């Protein structure tokens, strides 16, 4: 008879994974981190810095350690409550790797061959890609299912991996004749997540890999740096429009209005009702004041945390213990 595990499923558990790429910026904050902070109110949350995913491509060891601490610091500085949510790096809970091996034996070659991210990341030289890069989605499925997470916040680029996770959960349940052992986790598409563009070119996403540091506001930037970057941000000669259609072919204006709106949790329409008609000179002053007010304290807290490695490491250790306390009984089952 099919054994049913429904009573062991959590109702509202989020698993979020983030790559340890240092240098988080305003785009990461408005597009992701800020939403995760808010999800803590309604969900039991597990936040994981996925260092084992990072090493699917070459990482310099000391740079990787530094990035793990930086990402952790930015989460804490942005308001992740480490008493409430587990925050840790993946490699410290061995259950992820354990379950990933089982999933290597559940997922099919054909399934992984369809993953578009592998094709992009491996590029032309597939023969030389690590096998870890190929089986990356199985580890991601293990991250999520080791906690029986019910919800996973993901961006567009990770949707395919989440679908694979559901396929793995299903096949596992079928193969071993269990029902609801693993849940089929739902994507949480973050409400109108702000798409923050480069300050130098409104058609490109704000990115940590952009050559120019003036293209982005880093979470570690202090008040002066924020003000300087916004002052230098690219604009056009016209004052701000009063209606949304006036932003259509003005990528830079649209981006700055979008940032202004997101920083105060309003829509761009609402923002234009306030600042439409202003010159860029006046608008940039208001925007700078707002950005400094919201981001200044985060940057300061990050600097403070980064000077206290022992504290960050203790958070990660404690988080890993709490994480394993959730996953070990599931692995044992
Ligand atoms: N693959 C995700 C990314 O590149 C990171 C990740 C790893 C993840 N494990 C996860 C995201 C589990 C959500 C859930 O962004």
Describe the structure.
With 333 residues, the chain is mainly alpha-helical. It folds into 2 domains: 216 residues, HUPs (Rossmann fold), CATH 3.40.50; 92 residues, Tyrosyl-Transfer RNA Synthetase (Orthogonal Bundle). The protein contains 13 helices and 7 strands. Helix 7 packs across helix 8. The chain is elongated, with a radius of gyration of 22 Å. The model has no long low-confidence stretch (mean pLDDT 95). The protein binds tryptophan (TRP). Tryptophan (TRP) binds next to strand 2 and helix 7.
Describe how the helices and strands are arranged.
Blueprint: E1 3-4, E2 13-18, H1 26-39, E3 44-49, H2 51-54, H3 61-78, E4 86-89, H4 95-104, H5 109-113, H6 116-122, H7 131-145, E5 151-153, H8 159-175, E6 178-179, E7 186-188, H9 223-232, H10 251-263, H11 268-275, H12 280-306, H13 309-332
Parallel strand pairs: 1-6, 2-3, 3-4, 5-7
Helix pairs in contact: 3-12, 4-7, 7-8, 9-12, 10-11, 10-12
Residues 15-17, 19, 50, 53, 140, 143-144, 152, 154, 158 line the site of tryptophan.
Relevant terms:
333 residues; Rossmann fold; 3-stranded parallel beta sheet; elongated; binds tryptophan
Arithmetic mean pLDDT: 95
Residue share in helices?
A: 40-55%
Bound molecules: tryptophan
| CATH structural class of the largest domain | Alpha Beta
Structural class: mainly alpha
Q: What's this model, at a glance?
A:
This protein is mainly alpha-helical and 333 residues long. The protein contains 13 helices and seven strands.
């Amino acid at each position: 008879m099919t054994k049913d595990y429904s009573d062991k499923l959590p109702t509202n558990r989020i698993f979020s994974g983030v790559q340890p790429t240092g240098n988080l910026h305003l785009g990461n904050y408005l597009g992701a981190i800020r939403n995760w902070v808010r999800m803590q109110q309604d969900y039991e949350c597990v936040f994981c810095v996925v260092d084992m995913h990072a090493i699917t491509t070459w990482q310099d060891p000391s740079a990787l350690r530094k990035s793990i601490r930086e990402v952790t610091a930015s989460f804490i500085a942005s308001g992740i409550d480490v008493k409430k949510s587990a925050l840790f790096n993946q490699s410290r809970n061995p259950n992820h790797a354990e379950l990933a091996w089982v999933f290597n034996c559940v997922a099919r070659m054909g399934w992984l061959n369809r993953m578009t991210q592998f094709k992009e990341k491996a590029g032309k030289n597939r023969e030389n890609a690590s096998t870890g890069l190929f089986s990356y989605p199985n580890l991601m499925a293990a991250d999520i299912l080791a906690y029986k997470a019910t919800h996973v916040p993901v961006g567009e680029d990770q949707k395919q991996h989440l679908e694979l996770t559901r396929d793995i959960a299903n096949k596992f349940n079928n193969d071993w004749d269990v029902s609801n052992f693993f849940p089929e986790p739902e994507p949480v598409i973050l409400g109108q997540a702000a798409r923050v563009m480069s300050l130098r070119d409104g058609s490109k996403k704000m990115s940590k890999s952009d050559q120019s540091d003036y293209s982005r506001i880093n979470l570690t930037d202090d008040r002066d740096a924020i003000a300087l970057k916004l002052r230098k941000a690219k604009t056009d000669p016209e004052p701000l429009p009063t209606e949304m259609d006036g932003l259509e072919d003005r990528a830079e204006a649209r981006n700055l209005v979008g940032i202004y709106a997101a920083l105060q949790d309003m829509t761009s329409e609402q923002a234009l009702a306030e600042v439409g008609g202003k010159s860029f000179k006046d608008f940039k002053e208001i925007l700078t004041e707002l950005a400094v007010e919201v981001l200044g304290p985060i940057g300061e807290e990050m600097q403070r945390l980064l000077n206290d490695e022992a504290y960050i490491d203790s958070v990660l250790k404690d988080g890993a213990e709490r994480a394993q306390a959730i996953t070990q009984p599931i692995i044992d089952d």
